[in-house]
Amino acid sequence: MKTVLLSLVLLSILAGACDRSGGGNAPSNLGGSGYEVVKTYPHSRDAYTQGLIFHEGKLIESTGREGKSSVRRVDIETGDIVQKVSLPFEYFGEGLTLLNGKIYQLTWQHQTGFIYDPVSFEKLGEFKYFGEGWGLTHDGQQLILSDGTHRLRFIDPSTFQVKKVVSVTDRGAPVHRLNELEFARGEILANVWHSDKIARIEPESGRVIGWIDLSGLLKPGEVSDEDAVLNGIAYDESTGRLMVTGKMWPKLFEIRLK
Fold first, then answer.
1. E strand or H helix at 59, and its extent?
2. Please, where are the H alpha helices in the chain?
3. What is the pTM of this model?
């Protein structure tokens, strides 16, 4: 996410929260938390990936940083940008999702979100929310927003009122810095900023039921920027494909959970 120094204390908390490799005791439709790479695709190094979704066989990606933020449609096989709309210079783009035929995109600190047509990328409107915007997904009825804390907000997409707030915990300890989100087969998948692990979250309770450890996806030296971290999860309901990538990563990975 943003370019700040992580404290040793926060790192130790994350390490303690992320040391479990199993799927927990709760049943899950996603399967286990081990993984295998099914296929590797190219990904644009200039994409500061904040959100990633499937739409009609292509990826729609939200990118960040002031003056460089965008919503772009990407050809998976080639990594080429086939359609793009840029945000106004002052906005730092964040997570996005597609619900009820509309794309919703967050911005970081402006407390403003944008609504687009998923085909033309025409801007349909704006919406407001309190605090920072990091990740965004939905459960079919409500938008689910992360703000860098351990809390997830469930938001009515018609009124943009917060309907409930869920605290995400792993064995009773809060899991902070929740970032990019994806809803898949009844679970919320969440990147944890500056971690190689994805939390698998039970939506009703906020309890982490497992971790997907993706350390080692990139080879040493493939990225050098300290902000080039794992961030970006896309699940295709029609095919069951699960894609992951990172900010400024040269590769996009299709993975299968074991």
1. strand 58-63
2. 8-17
3. 0.87
Q: Which CATH superfamily is domain 8-257 in?
A: TolB, C-terminal domain (2.120.10.30)
- Which residue, among 13, 191, 4, 198, has the nearest Cα to 94 in the 3D structure? 191
Q: Are 231 and 219 in contact (CB under 8 A)?
A: no
Task: Assign 3-state DSSP to the chain and report helix, strand, coil percentages, each to 5.
Answer: 5, 45, 50
In terms of pLDDT, which residue wins out, 3 or 213?
213
| Banded pLDDT at 31 (limits 50, 70, 90) | low
Distance CA 19, CA 173 (A): 13
Give the pLDDT band (50/70/90) at residue 227.
very high
The torsion region of residue 107 among left (phi > 0), alpha (psi -120 to 50) and beta comes to: beta
Residue extents of the structural domains in the chain: 8-257
Q: Tell me the C-alpha distance between 125 and 77, whole Å.
A: 32
pLDDT in tens, 114-145: 999 999 999 999 999 999 999 999 999 999 99
Q: Is the dihedral of CA 218, 219, 225, 226 positive or negative?
A: positive
Q: Are 35 and 258 in contact (CB under 8 A)?
A: yes
**Measured between alpha carbons, how far is 109 from 94 in angstroms, rounded to an integer?**
10
CA separation for the pair 232, 48 (Å, rounded): 10
What value does the mean pLDDT of the chain take? 89
Contact status, residue 202 vs residue 175, Cβ threshold 8 Å? no
